[in-house]
């Protein structure tokens, strides 16, 4: 069990919070000076993660956009599938914004708990990026100096620039496009290796950070973390209902009862494996056998969905970002919400296929930066991400199978494969 990084990080979080709370109860005034070197180790670990964000995000964006464009150019069905992916991701981003804001309005984090968690994480009160008006915000989307934008953590202009570079790369002749994409693939893989190294010592980093949280916030921080798990899990689970609703509203094609029966065993497998890729064979089998979706659709759409589409990515990521903003008392305006939604949409394409721990930080850091909130809480939240991640995978496989069902044309004849040996002579 302790071979799992998630379990080791969760244990480190519990030990850090408990140890810090015990030291705080002891009340020795000299403890703060003793804890500072430990907290410095946690800060060093966090900075090691942060240094990979900009090059990794930019490289993944270029690779992701180029791969999606290449897939869309392979045929009409692939283009329709990618168009449906984009529509669902936009709906998911809007839903996440409204649902998270609404749930936090009904069930806000206590002011004392938020203040204690901020103090424990060593982060001060954050202030959302001020909006200078729609015209100024629109002008800022295109960075006059991308390198300066990267240095200043101006993530939205950098994402826009990465999207343009990705689409522009698809217009290059193959002799130029291939080495350019290969270069960004090499950069991305190099950054991922560094992140793997950093995450290998994640239990040490999380323990060091959570020790300070426990020392300053006590066990009260555990209540806020539990609320975080519930909020993000509920919001993430909610988006899994979208494919059901779309299939129910659609006339013809796959019926809702049949879809519900077919997707249920795949959801059980997703719960146990927490991997969309591991569920792909089961999705293809259920789509062909139970839903009678033609193999020409399942053979293309489902592998494509697993490769470039994650329905829950913008939902869970935005829910986390808005929860962090809520902790810091940030009230983002409409421009900041639009920026966060756009970044979440773009990142959901670029970060597909990354391991869970790497994907969490790579996805969350740019969205938090777009909202103007610090990143100090992310390592603590990473430790409890194992529970929301279950709902991420369940929602993803539901969305994948739902897209395949929606692309089956109403009244389309099921393809019947006849066994030559059983055919009448």
Summarize it.
The protein is 75% helix and 0% strand.
* CATH topology assignment: Proton glutamate symport protein
Overall mean pLDDT stands at: 83
**How many E-type strands?**
0
The CATH architecture would be: Orthogonal Bundle
Number of domains: 1
| Structure annotation, total helices | 20
Low-confidence stretches: 127-131, 413-425
Characterize the overall form.
globular
Main sheet: strands, sense, barrel: none
- Measured between the Cα atoms of the first and last residue, the distance is 58 Å
Structural class designation:
mainly alpha
Proportion in β-strands: under 5%
Task: Give an overview of the whole structure.
With 425 residues, the chain is an all-alpha fold. The protein has a single domain, classed as Proton glutamate symport protein (Orthogonal Bundle). 75% of the residues lie in helices and 0% in strands. It has helices at residues 5-26, 31-50, 53-72, 76-106, 111-121, 134-139, 146-151, 155-169, 174-200, 202-217, 220-239, 241-249, 256-273, 280-289, 295-308, 313-327, 334-350, 356-371, 378-383, 386-406.
């Amino acid at each position: 069990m302790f071979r799992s990084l998630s379990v080791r990080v969760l244990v480190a979080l519990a030990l850090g919070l408990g140890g810090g709370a015990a030291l705080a109860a002891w009340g020795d005034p000299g403890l703060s000076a003793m804890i500072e070197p430990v907290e410095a180790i946690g800060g060093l670990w966090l900075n090691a993660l942060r240094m990979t964000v900009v090059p990794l995000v930019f490289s993944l964006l270029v690779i992701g956009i180029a791969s999606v464009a290449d897939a869309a150019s392979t045929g009409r069905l692939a283009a329709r599938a990618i168009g449906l992916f984009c529509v669902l991701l936009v709906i998911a981003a809007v839903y996440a914004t409204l649902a998270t804001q609404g749930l936090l309005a009904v069930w806000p984090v206590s002011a004392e708990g938020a203040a204690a968690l901020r103090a424990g994480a060593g982060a001060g009160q954050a202030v959302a990026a001020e909006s200078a008006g729609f015209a100024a915000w629109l002008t800022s989307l295109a960075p006059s100096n991308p390198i300066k934008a990267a240095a200043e953590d101006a993530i939205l202009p950098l994402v826009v620039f990465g999207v343009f570079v990705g689409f522009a790369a698809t217009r290059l002749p193959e002799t130029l496009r291939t080495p350019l994409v290969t270069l960004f693939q090499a950069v991305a893989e190099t950054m991922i290796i560094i992140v793997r190294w950093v995450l290998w010592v994640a239990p040490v980093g999380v323990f060091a950070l959570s020790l300070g949280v426990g020392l300053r916030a006590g066990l009260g921080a555990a209540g806020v973390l539990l609320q975080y798990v519930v909020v993000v899990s509920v919001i993430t689970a909610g988006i899994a209902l979208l494919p059901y609703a779309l299939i129910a509203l659609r006339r013809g094609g796959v019926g809702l009862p049949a879809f519900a029966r077919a997707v249920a065993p795949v959801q059980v497998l997703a719960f146990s494996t927490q991997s969309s890729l591991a569920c792909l064979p089961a999705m293809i089998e259920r789509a062909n056998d139970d839903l009678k979706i033609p193999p020409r659709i399942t053979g293309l759409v489902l592998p494509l969905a697993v490769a470039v589409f994650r329905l829950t990515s913008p939902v869970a990521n935005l829910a986390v970002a808005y929860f962090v903003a809520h902790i810091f008392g940030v009230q983002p305006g409409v421009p900041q919400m639009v920026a966060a939604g756009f970044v979440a949409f773009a990142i959901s394409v670029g970060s597909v296929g990354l391991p869970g721990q790497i994907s969490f930080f790579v996805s969350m850091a740019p969205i938090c930066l777009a909202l103007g909130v610090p990143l100090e809480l992310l390592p603590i939240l990473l430790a409890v991400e194992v529970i929301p991640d279950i709902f991420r995978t369940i929602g993803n496989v539901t969305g994948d199978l739902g897209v395949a069902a929606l692309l089956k044309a109403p009244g389309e004849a099921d393809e019947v494969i006849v066994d030559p040996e059983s055919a009448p002579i």
